[in-house]
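Hey team,

Sharing the Acetolactate synthase run so nobody has to redo it. Sequence (583 residues) first:
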Amino acid sequence: MAEKSGADILVECLIDLGVEVVFGYPGGAVLPIYDALYNHPTIKHVLVRHEQGATHMAEGYARSTGKPGVVLVTSGPGATNAVTGITDALMDSIPMVVITGQVPTQLIGTDAFQEADTIGITRHCSKHNYLVKTPGKLAEVIHEAFHIATTGRPGPVVVDIPKNVQIATAPYAKPELKVHASYRPQTKADAAGIDAAVEMLAAAERPVFYTGGGVINSGPQASALLRELAALTGAPVTSTLMGLGAYPASGDAWLGMLGMHGTFEANWAMNQADLILCIGARFDDRVTGRLDAFAPNSRKVHIDIDRSSINKIVDVDVPIVADIASALDDMIALWKQRNHQKADLTQWWARIAGWRARKSLDYAENSIEIMPQRAIADLYAATKATGKDVIITTEVGQHQMWAAQHFGFDAPNKWLTSGGLGTMGYGFPAAIGAQMGNPDSITICIAGDASIQMNIQELGTASQYRLPVKIFILNNEYMGMVRQWQELTYESRYSNSYSDSLPDFVKLGEAYGWTGIRIEGPQELEAGIRQMLETDGPVIVDCRVAKMSNCFPMIPSGASHTDMLLDPSQVKGSMTDEAKALV
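Structure output:
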């Protein structure tokens, strides 16, 4: 076998693994890799403006295509700038491989120029990480890194490569993937667990499917099987923020999102259920509210590929460690084999209809100001009317919750948002990554005026690669969710939540070669959205919305599902110190 440099071995590995796109930023410690990429045009390199942007682009690419995202950054500040995106991918279970440069092995530990302990820094925010010390080990490590990132519970894997390893040579042959001694994720469910789950579901009088991002991470088949099981059983379906689209928002069994800003019917159904089938969710604090009041009279089945997520927060009656698609397939097969019929859930659905009649997502219209909920609803209607594939990303804040509430998702992989880490600055670069992976789709980032500025420099990336990304800013001149909590928790003391000195977003977009649109009143909303969708190329929309709107419904921190607030009139006094600590 001919010998190749470590840099060439890396690139050959990426080609063998089917990598088509790499998001990165060059620097001294990765120049050999960039030189190797120069001779391999089959891999498209996207030059970002900041390394955090690269990680979020890789996340958006991965979540919208199902393929792992790949990042390439230099040592020191390049690697540390990527840490937020690595952590975000870990929290939301996104398959990503981050390749970082490192100073030569002989300089490690000497505080050399642009040295950082990348392995130490990323140990607790990555699924796994490697420091490769010889070029002969590089191929095996890269192939194993992709395997770990994409199997079991997906997540980010970091590969740190010293510069001298990139230059040194070694023979290269595509390695065979070895069975790892300790990494063997369980994908097939235990038969006893499936049996118990099916029988409990058949006997339940008030069942509810509590679904999460794990359904989407499992792949399109899992979403299809969820829909089939819901139809077979007649049970209602709710979802976490991360699971939207796994079950269609237009489906008969859909209750809407649950949790802190979920619907009245979804939260009350969870509270009153006699059986909760948790599928690919993790009972996080934004869903459960006060734990001692969460679903007090229900039995619980939890299906998750991550064993550590089961019984971590809420004790369950039937734990099932498995891939979601595999487990649902087994449940459906056993349900049919035993000839179970759809139960009579008439009374249960009647109770749900009563909760739904509260119309918890309604809001007061305004003839002078644009209500943010109306802006999202009109955006949804306009995109649906195009008949085209639409991918929505968001930043983090009130606009994120309004989008989750008022934009209907009927398919998986069309809703990309930062859930676990809540990363402002995620949505715009994620939209660029999604657009790169889905060139024929309409990709829209719904943003706030504060969060869009976190990675706004990536306007240049979209311009360079002629990506027709759309940014739809709900501009209320505040860090909206921070202001809302200050109003409800700190007696309206708005400490540093007003976004003073905002840029002119239209002119800023135009400076980068984008089309800029400003929407200032309800009468301009429909035409402004239509102009955005009909304009070729990237568009930034500054949509001025009501400044003091709050996001309801809402479960206050430290409260239970039965203490949901549906409008500002229900807010009484300030929260306890214990509740404030949970915000």
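Residues 317 and 477 are 47 Å apart (CA to CA).

Ping me if you want the raw files.
A.
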